């Protein structure tokens, strides 16, 4: 750890891991109490954001010397999994903001990053959809609209992507960092689920962004001393998102198990008293199978994250060009994410169906989880397109150069 470390977290790896998970447990009730307000607001309630900041959750991808408290990929997964059990919107927003902070800390020059993080953790939200930028002396003039910007209501900066002609006239992606005070946040997040992520759009009109605040997210970062910096942009969004949906699925399974002893189907119609769900062999079999599927998906995701962590720790050839993981690990990360999404959807849907009329109220946990998982699966990272990519890999059709982003 750097001699100029600003973190208050333990320095030992195991001690830090244990400390991190305790921090999440200590804010659990505050996050749970904020869910209803967040749903109504359409973005996280102020106390939920304060809790995440105070617990150090938003700093787990930011170097210690900049006020963060870096954890390994497995611990990062488990942190988001625990928050996902409370509320997927909270977990999603936390993941976006902490990834954004880590990206600011590692993609900018050391001097620029030190300046941005001098007083507190700098948070970023952003969109990958390219807008328009005009080259000018010392930087770019940014204009356009960017959508699906989760966490923008809590961010200090937004990243506005645009395309340029790079070497050999090849099209390359660039990211411009714009202070939130210089953008117009639009009110366009009216959706089925994940309401509290506030994933609305923003507009920028002719804002100058200096070269020092522009970077290429697809190339090596100036800093390479954190897992995020060495993973690169594509993998870092894959390591925690499976935890979010599998945590939500575990919550759904816990909810229906809690209801089962007192849930009786057809009791308003039949004269006799039917068995409870818990007493019914078909339900016992169903719960047993759903639990096994959920456990398998979790074991897959954790195993992949362990392998990624081992590769980063060993510094072996598994981490190659530009800090990018070898193809096998990239494929496994995407496949485990898609498998987590599909499994979570099945578990949550079945739990919802078994709960009957009790689940259909807007305020029902299962109703919220059902809306959330179906909204999440519209996002490519956790969608079934990942299985197509896995098929390409198995068939020998994929290389690091032609591998596509979901």
Explain this structure to me?
The chain has 406 residues and is an alpha+beta fold. Helices cover 47% and strands 15% of the residues. It is built from 13 helices and 9 strands. The strands form 2 sheets. A 7-stranded mixed β-sheet has the order 5-6-2-1-3-4-7. It has a two-stranded antiparallel sheet with strand order 8-9. α4 (73-86) packs parallel to α9. The protein is globular. The two termini are 35 Å apart. Mean pLDDT is 91; it is low at 316-323.
Write a concise keyword list for the protein shown above.
two-stranded antiparallel ribbon, alpha+beta, 9 strands
Strand fraction band?
15-25%
Number of strands: 9
How many helical stretches?
13
Global structural class: alpha+beta
What strand line-up does the widest sheet have?
Answer: 5-6-2-1-3-4-7
Helix-strand string = HHHHHHEEEEEEEHHHHEEHHH
Residue-averaged pLDDT: 91
Q: What would you report as the Rg, rounded to the nearest angstrom?
A: 22 Å
Distance between the termini: 35 Å
Task: Estimate the global geometry from the Cα principal axes.
Answer: globular
- Uncertain spans: 316-323
Major sheet: 7 strands, mixed
Helix content: 40-55%
Task: Walk me through the topology.
Layout: H1 13-26, H2 28-41, H3 46-55, H4 73-86, H5 88-107, H6 110-116, E1 124-136, E2 139-149, E3 157-165, E4 171-179, E5 184-185, E6 200-210, E7 214-215, H7 227-231, H8 233-236, H9 241-259, H10 281-314, E8 319-320, E9 324-325, H11 327-355, H12 365-376, H13 385-394
Helix pairs in contact: 1-4, 2-3, 4-5, 4-9, 5-6, 5-9, 9-10, 9-11, 9-12, 10-11, 11-12, 11-13
């Amino acid at each position: 750890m750097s001699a100029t470390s600003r973190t208050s977290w333990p320095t030992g790896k195991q001690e830090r891991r244990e400390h991190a998970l305790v921090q999440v447990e200590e804010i659990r009730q505050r996050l749970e109490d904020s869910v209803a307000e967040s749903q109504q607001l359409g973005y996280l309630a102020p106390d939920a954001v304060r809790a995440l900041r105070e617990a150090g959750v938003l700093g787990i991808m930011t170097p210690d010397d900049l006020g963060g408290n870096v954890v390994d990929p497995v611990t990062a997964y488990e942190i988001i999994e625990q928050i996902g059990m409370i509320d997927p919107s909270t977990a999603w927003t936390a993941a976006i903001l902490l990834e954004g902070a880590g990206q600011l800390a590692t993609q900018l020059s050391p001097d620029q990053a030190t300046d941005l993080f001098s007083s507190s953790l700098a948070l970023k939200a952003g969109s990958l959809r390219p807008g328009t930028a005009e080259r000018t002396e010392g930087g770019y003039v940014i204009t356009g609209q960017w959508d699906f910007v989760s966490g923008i209501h809590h961010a200090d900066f937004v990243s506005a992507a645009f395309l340029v002609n790079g070497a050999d006239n090849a099209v390359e992606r660039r990211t411009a960092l714009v202070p939130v005070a210089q953008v117009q946040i639009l009110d366009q997040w009216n959706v089925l689920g994940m309401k509290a992520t506030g994933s609305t759009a923003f507009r920028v009109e002719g804002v100058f962004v200096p070269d020092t605040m522009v970077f290429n997210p697809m190339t090596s970062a100036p800093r390479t001393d954190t897992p995020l910096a060495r993973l690169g942009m594509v993998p870092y969004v894959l390591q925690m998102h499976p935890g979010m949906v599998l945590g939500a699925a575990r919550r759904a399974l816990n909810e229906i198990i809690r209801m089962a002893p007192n849930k009786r189907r057809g009791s308003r119609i039949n004269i006799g008293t039917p068995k409870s769900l818990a007493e019914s062999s078909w339900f016992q079999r169903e719960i047993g199978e759903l639990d096994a599927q959920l456990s398998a998906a979790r074991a897959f995701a954790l195993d992949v994250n362990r392998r990624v962590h081992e590769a980063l720790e060993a510094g072996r050839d598994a981490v190659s060009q530009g800090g990018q993981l070898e193809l096998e690990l990239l494929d496994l990360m995407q496949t485990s994410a898609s498998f987590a999404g599909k499994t979570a959807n099945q578990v949550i849907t079945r739990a919802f169906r078994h709960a009957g009329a009790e689940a259909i109220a807007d305020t029902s946990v299962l109703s919220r989880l059902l809306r959330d998982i179906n909204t999440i699966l519209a996002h490519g990272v956790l969608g079934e397109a990942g299985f197509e990519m896995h098929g390409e890999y198995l068939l020998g059709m994929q290389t690091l150069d032609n591998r596509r982003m979901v």
